[in-house]
Amino acid sequence: MRSSSFRAVSAGITLLLLVALIGLIGLTLRSQPAVTIRPAPTPTRTATPTLTPTPMPVADVRLVASTGGYRVQPPPGYEVAMQGAAITLTRIVSATDEHQADNVSTIGLDVLPLTTFGLPTNSSLEETALRIARPLLERTAGEMNAQESISVGGRSGVALSIQGTVDGEPVEARIVVAPHGSGQVFVAAATAPSVIWAAETEQAFTRLLQSVSFFEPEAVAAGATPQTTPPPAPTSALRGEVIAPPSPTPTVAQSTAIAIASLVTPTPTPAPVRSSQAWTVVSDGNWMNDLAVVGNTIWIASDGGALAWTRGSATPVKFTTLNGLTANRLTAVVHCPLPELGVLFGSDDGLQVIDPRAGGWRSWNSRNSELRYDDVSALACDAEDGYLVVGYTRHGIDVFDARTGQWRHLDRNSGLASNNVRKVAVVGALEQIWVIADDGVTVAAGPDSTFYSAANSPLENNRIGAVAVAEDGVVWLGGEGVLYRIEGDAWTVFSAEEAANEGFPLRLIVGVAPTPDGHVWIGDVDGAICRFDPVTTACVEAFRGEEGMAGAPLTQLTLDAEGRLYFTTAGDGYSVYDGAGWRKFVKANEGIKGNAVRGAVVGPEGALWAVTDGGVQRIIAPNRPPQVLPDAGVASIRALYAARNGELWVAGEGASVWDGESWTPLTAEDGLLDGVVQAIAEDSRGRIWLGTSVGVSIWNGAVFVNLTEEAGLPSGNIQALLPDGEAMWIGSAGGGLYRFARNQLEVFTGENIGLPSNAITALAKDGDLLYIGTDAGLVELRNGAVAPVPAVGERAVTQILAQGASLWVGTQDAGLFYDAGDGWRQETTEGALPSNHVTAIVGVDNAVWIGGAVGGFVRYSVLTKE
């Protein structure tokens, strides 16, 4: 099996490009350890990449390295990392056998001075290319197959083709060098295992080189900070560009374009730094919420990031917090080519904006723009009529009128019936704004508003799942198995009972898309889709569970300009109907299922288990699908624990135990306290302790023994458990910290030892030092004395991991604080975190996994393995 050293990436150090090129070869040979549990079968994907050469479409998204002075169109399906003048493109083709390594195709681009390679500024391109290739040839025992002239961006360059081996595996590489200003060269390199080179990488690299164009690079002084104020942008853009921010230090020092693997001489592990090489986001882009078609690109807002899917491509480009987003969970997407805008994504941190000319990914939020709040739930935009409407989960709507340049805010104090906005739609040029909330519909028209509910309108109930406006101004609403048509003051109600044939959706209609001929596509949460004709009151076409249709729950319906119908799902990708049939698209090799992490634990054999909104699962690797267990039958899972005997416990409203083959439920009928289970631990005798909202239930393998307030607990609301030899530490939500040993209970509170709060939220031990997390900060307890940890402040602590010389602390809303041995740092969604609400921290295989309440995991590589 190939060494795991090929997965390691050095960060924050200046190395020459010749070493980086060798690292590229290493990255193509990523390996995974053999697993002992075979993943459960997953549905067959309908859009799976093969090793047969196929025409390679060019993505609409352009990547712009502003400090490098070049732009390029990435091939479909490649993950993107950008920093300064450097761009890295990586595509993983999964092995068909879990005991085999994945095949990785890697392309790197950069602009560097000739002095980087120890060459004088008047060196020829041939000499430069050979100097770059020399260590690569030596390391791989390779042969140079060809040296040829090539045109890159209208400039004459040199290309070298190389074949070699690494650890017995045949690999191929191609190095391209072209002139780029005085004493500088543009360098591009691609590597892949020979098994996928001809079928995948060579074609992608060729098309990418054909798309390169050069321009005058931006001059950025060392130590400068990127501009944060977005400059004006054109009012129309159908092709997006992702622009790398200027590097705050010289390009060579922070180059991430050609990832550097330590394959020649081991180097000391540098102090951890926040970089895309140290951090890896593990999220599920198939948990989709909305879709917008812009030119030849399908933009998707998912709970795991933004996806740019070139039409017809099997895989997308994925963007997360490592690529410039400040939130992974994206709630909505709309094409809005107004000044300074482009393709807009709604998120929990305002708007995530990708613009063709103004600077790549930018975040518009309440801190840097006219937006009043950040919790964006819905968007509506029309550049021709000149408006943008932003709906908020808890704060009403903001309305931007581009004709006047004015923003205004509407909420319960100024015309809306509810602040909890779910959907928005606009009639005309802001003549009416339809706002859908949990308790009805508000139609805002200027200073006056009209409120519709089941009490004063034809609405059968107040649950509305979709709203859309047709070209003729007719408004369509989707309800619980009911479709509403509103024209002026006239309402028409359609349901399955009135429909002339079968196929009308019976559940909540969450997608409505009117067509130019007066029909309307409707889809319900269960995946039933109908093209409805209101004249004949019949489904002209009806689909459910057809070949090529993604599995429910359906989340949105969208029509493109050519009449193709798209629908997104929560967990199974999206599908498109072209009038002849359906085709399904799934983002392959997502490392988790679901993105709302509720807990994670490492088993005694080293396996990483997690529970998300996608279920209980064993995480295999960041780029392999997880092993998802059957439904545990426990509602609102809050905790999980891997016992020493190999059993896996999950708990919430009840508990259940997985023995490797099936679940065994445990409920109040078995003696479990009738409260929500919030923590699980195992004592030295192998008994399982379940901390609930009303006390502690202790399972001895046959029966439960319960500790409650009646038995002497100051508070029965238990939030944390930590075994310590023969004792158990118990954290309560108001009674302080307890130590239970030999049937004796000690109580520690703010009153008797100076805890910052009696609400204990997390516990961890490091030798004789006990870390106590509270809703008002973190403290250390040693020999009965309490000392605060000033770096965390008075923030509410949710998770603590003490691992070796490092300490990791998750908070409720301030992200992560960590000391990896060289001082405290804070990480938030402005950097790599998927969410500022940290719900899990675990250490496995020299890495720390941090889970968020939304947005999935981020993985931090602590050590470099050799």
Helix fraction bin: under 10%
Unreliably modeled segments: 1-59, 220-240, 245-276
Q: Which sheet architecture does the biggest sheet show? A: 7 strands, antiparallel
Give average pLDDT, whole number: 84
- Give the strand order of the largest sheet, numbering strands 1, 2, ... along the chain: 3-4-5-9-8-7-6
The computed structural class is mainly beta
* Rg (CA only): 28 Å
- Strand % is 35-45%
The count of DSSP E runs of length 2 or more, i.e. the number of strands, is 66
> What is the global morphology?
globular
Q: Report, as a whole number of angstroms, the end-to-end distance.
A: 14 Å
Q: Helix count, per DSSP?
A: 3
Structure keywords:
mainly beta, seven-stranded antiparallel β-sheet, four-stranded mixed β-sheet
How would you briefly describe this protein structure?
This protein has 866 residues and is mainly beta.
Q: Can you put this structure into words, describing what you see?
A:
- The structure is a single chain.
- The longest helix is centred in the N-terminal third of the chain and has 17 residues, at about 195-210.
- The strands form 16 sheets. A seven-stranded antiparallel sheet has the order 3-4-5-9-8-7-6, sandwiched between helices.
- The radius of gyration is 28 Å and the shape is globular.
- α1 packs across α2.
- About 5% of the residues lie in helices and about 45% in strands.
- It has about 850 residues and is mainly β.
- Residues about 1-60, about 220-240 and about 245-275 have low confidence and may be disordered.
